[in-house]
Structure formats: C-alpha cells, structure tokens
Design brief:
There is one protein chain. By secondary structure, the protein is mainly beta. The chain folds into 3 domains: 81 residues, Immunoglobulin-like (Sandwich), CATH 2.60.40.10; 80 residues, Immunoglobulin-like; 102 residues, Immunoglobulins (Immunoglobulin-like, Sandwich). It has 2 helices and 24 strands. The strands form 6 sheets. The chain has a 5-stranded mixed β-sheet, with no helix packed on it. Strands 10-16-15-12-13 form a 5-stranded mixed β-sheet, with no helix packed on it. Strands 17, 18, 19 and 22 form a 4-stranded antiparallel β-sheet that branches. A hairpin with a 4-residue loop joins strand 15 and strand 16. The longest helix has 27 residues. The radius of gyration is 27 Å and the shape is globular. The N terminus is likely disordered.
Amino acid sequence: MRREARWMRTGFFGALASSLLLLCGCTLFNQAPTAVIEATPLTGTSPLVVTFDGSGSLDPEGQALSYRWEFGDGTASDEATPHHTYLALTERTVFVTTLRVTDPMGRSDTTQQSIEVRPSGTSGGGGTGEPFARVTARPIIGPIPLVVSFSAEGSEPGSGSITQVRWEFGDGKGAIGITAVHTYEPAETKTFRATAFVGNTAGIIRAAQVDITVIVPVGAPEGDDPEAAFDATDPLLLYASPNPASTPTLYELTFDPGGSFADAGHQIDYYAWDFGDGDVRVETTDVEVTHVYRLATQSRTYTVRLTVYDDQGLSDTAILNLSLVQPDEEDET
C-alpha cells in the first residue's frame, strides 16, 4: 500500500510538473510575430485614399493575430485590411502609419510606412518649376476593337508653358499632341499601359500612365448577360469648406459590388467603376471601393456607374444618381 501511495503521489506530481512545464514552454518559447505593411498608393494629391493590408504579417506558430493601425493623423483602425483617406489642404504632408500585430500570448511587433500627400492642384515638382503630368482616358476597358480617347489637358506646366506631349500607347504605337485617339485590337484579352510624356519650356519632361484593358471574347457567348448591382454607404463628411469654390468640401463613400453575378457556369472578370466626377477605376474582384468627392458648388448630382464584364465578354451596367449638398452650419458643429 505504501509503495502504491508513493507511486500515486509520484504520478500526480509528475503530471503536475509536466503540465507546468508545458504551460511555461508555451509562454517561454512562443516567438514574436512579424508585422508587414502593404499600402497602395504611397503618394498622391489630397484627398488621398490609401488601402492598407496587414494580412501578410507572420506568426511563427501560425496563431491568429490582432491588428492595430495608427494612421499618423490621429485616427486608428483594428481591421486587417483598412482603407484610410488622408487630407493635406495647404502644404505637403508626410504621414507615418504604424501597424502593431499581437499574437494570443501577448507578443507583438511593429512596423511603419510613410505616406506623402500633396495639396490638390500642386505639382509633383515641389515648387521647382517641373511639370506635372495628368492623364485621362475614356473608356479604360471594353471589348475589341476598343477606341480610346486620351487627354493630357489637366497637366500643369510648372514654370512657363507645356510645349510637348508625346504618347506611347503600350502596343508599340504612339502619337503627338495634348489629346489623342487610339484603337486597340489585340489577339487576346490584354491590359496595356499608356504613357503621356509632358514637357515644358524649361525642357523638363514628366510622365503619367493609365491602364487600358481590352477584352477579346473566346468563342461565341453560351449564356446570358451578367447582372451588375452595387450598394453605397451614406456620404461621410471629411471636410466642410468655408469657401467651396476655392477649396472644395470633401465627402467619402464606399461602394459594394457584391450583389453582381454572372450566369451559371461563368464568372465576372472585371468591375469597371465610373464615379461620375471624371475618376474611373477597374477591379478584378468584387472588392469594396472607396471614393472621395470634391464638392465645389452648393449641390451636385453625380451619376455613378458600375459595369461588369464576364468571361464571355458580355457586360451589364448599374447606375446610381448620387446627390451631394454643402453641409448646413448645424451639420458642421
């Protein structure tokens, strides 16, 4: 009996010691995670919408991480992939964004990313007289043959005046002039990067680019058209301007195309957004998109369009009339 009791005591304390060792081992040998930031874009004019992604952060033990973003302007987020709008109304500002990731044991790591924001209407030359190239293209996506109208009329000369604009359309062809028209006819679906080179009287040349996606259907369509649908958040007032004519009031909205769908057996390949204020963008997934509107008048209605293209080359468009007005004094307080 004594030997059995000793064995029982030994077994109890041995199990207890093993449990404590295991617990201590988890704590002592847990390795800290590594924080990783991806951000797009890293620079631009105000208001600048930046998409952050911390999901590439690593934990050696494969544990789930928590996220804490400090955007450098007094705001924060706990999401893994937040977006944030930066404002620089009067001068160039560099915001330092910090991401801290923490594992379930409390160990953490921190990393930072700088975001440069310039006031709207300023050039990238920093006051040195360099030109600032700005390009628009319509449309930026569509089926073959795709006729695209390009313009560099929004470019700024810096000092002097703009003396030349040279275009390279990304398919080996080019043109000269402040505006240009080009037809894309590739053999298969392809995205071309068109470039405008803008030069001023000082002989300084700067460039701007835009992507053009040309869809070439494979065979004849075998199904029905896709259906485009999207939702929009209520307008978020970012900045109420005392003089909108000189410095616009800023509103932010997020659009969700998740209600769009393709015919059975097919998928949507492209989501083309036209925000109704001259800005456009194309996504290849149904990701939510955020856009900032500059309201320089008392009120304005923007026609927002989402066009979806499926893998058959078929398309559909959804439209929303978005009306924005200047905030009342009560709304500003």
